[in-house]
Design goal:
The chain is an alpha/beta fold and 265 residues long. It is 48% helix and 15% strand. It has a 6-stranded mixed β-sheet with strand order 1-2-3-4-6-9, sandwiched between helices. Strands 5-7-8 form a 3-stranded mixed β-sheet. Helix 2 runs parallel beside helix 4. It is globular and about 60 Å long. The chain starts with a helix and ends in a 10-residue tail after the last helix.
Amino acid sequence: PKNWSLMLNLKCINFELHEDGIAFVNLNNKPVNALNKNLINDLISIVNYLETNKKCRLVIFRSLQKHFSAGADLKERKSMDSNQTFKFLDKVNSIFNRIENLQIPTIASINGAALGGGLELALCCDIRIASENSYVGLPETSLGIIPGAGGIFRLSKIIGMSKSKYWVFTAQKFTTESAYEDGVIDFMSKDDELLGVTLELAQEILENAPLAIKASKILFNNISIDSKDLNKLQKNSYSLVIDSEDKKEAIKAFLSKRKPSWKGE
């Protein structure tokens, strides 16, 4: 495979794009995948690439270290004045929004800790899987700050207002099981089966028509806007698939009792 990390000039992420259309964003910023300037710049380079690449059908965010991500790099943060901090947070928010708005499905595959900004990154993904011994949380209020990269509104959209307030106000770290019960984590796996379970899930998604998935994702991304506009958006999303080759192929395949062969057109 190509050395993507060289090609995209990455410093703390190993990026891979496989034949089947799965892209791996492997966080690799020793020791705990702190979200420092380099890592955020790497994410920007990767998303620039993903937004224009037609071959990529699904993205998996995972870690090559012991933890998914322990959040902000507090050492680096300490050296920033409030102006620099805001500038940096704007950058983080902008790239997290772009990850959330990618038109292909995204999976966060969580091992070890996903805390603060690390969990905020996972919340940008469509689906979160965690190994049984990992733990997640938004501990910012215990550090005298608040989640500053979309964590408050993404969490409350996913699990509702009261539970999110409990997560943020108590700054607790939750076991995978508690996070699963609260709905922050969608699937659990044994520690040594995380990648396998993640790939199984990816496969279930990849079996379906690429264009139809893209159209659904566009609609999901716009769901929080006014309901009048939602009908219009649904129509727009539907128009992406109504005359597609994949739709014709699906009907042919159904009638001849075979699996469809998707072209993404």
